[in-house]
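Hi there,

I know you've been waiting on this one. I reran it after we fixed the sequence typo, so this is the corrected version. Both the input and the resulting structure follow.
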Amino acid sequence: MEIIMKTDMEHSFPSSIEYNHEDIKAELSMSLEKYNNIVVTEEGIKEAKADRAKLNKLKSALDSKRKEVKNLCLAPYIEFETNINELIEMVDKPIKAIDVQIKEFENIKKESKRKDIEVVYCDNIEEFKELIPLKSIFNNKWLNATYKMSDIALEIESIVVNARSALSFIDSLNTEFKAQITDIYFQTLDINKVIAENKRLIEFSNKQKELENTSNVKKDVIQEREELKLMAIEFRVFATPKQFKALKEFLISNGIKYGKIK
């Protein structure tokens, strides 16, 4: 089945649309020459508005002719396009019906393969079944008919090997944040994010310690200042001259100020 054009496409349509283009162009050049470098003055506004209206009218006439010719040229094509689209819709109907049924069969096969993938996952994930669930590593490309089950098994084995290597690396860090960064690994399976999170936690911890140290220093200073506050107590002492001398030496040696009560 093929479309046989009954219209001679080469000769039915003009190769060009001819009109007195050069004559109009020459006439326009002459009549528009006076507007070159035009300067509108306050006294000439009325005349300028009249010229603008005349030029807009000319422009509108030219554009109207353009649209008229365009519509005449497109008329046969628009009818042709409408008819062709009608034929396309007729062909589309069975295409869609077939497509729906093909997709149903493909979905059945994908679901069957998904179950096979679950078996391969359980056979290869080993000790990481709880930490690395299938949904966290599932690749939709695995459902493609061309994707081999053996390749899927190798990918899961590689994930297991990487996880063991990551845990060994985390142990080697001897970090106090082992639990946190281990969680990050099993959330992302990305060792670079583990390193970044460990660094972030260490920096945060150090800043917190610095703040605590600064706070403790301030508390010590306040306490020292409170201890240095002088207290005044007035009392009488009844003692022998020897005892007064000893008391005086004690006060002086401890930096305690004293004086007579007036």
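Quick highlight: Residues 112-228 form one domain.

Best,
R. S.
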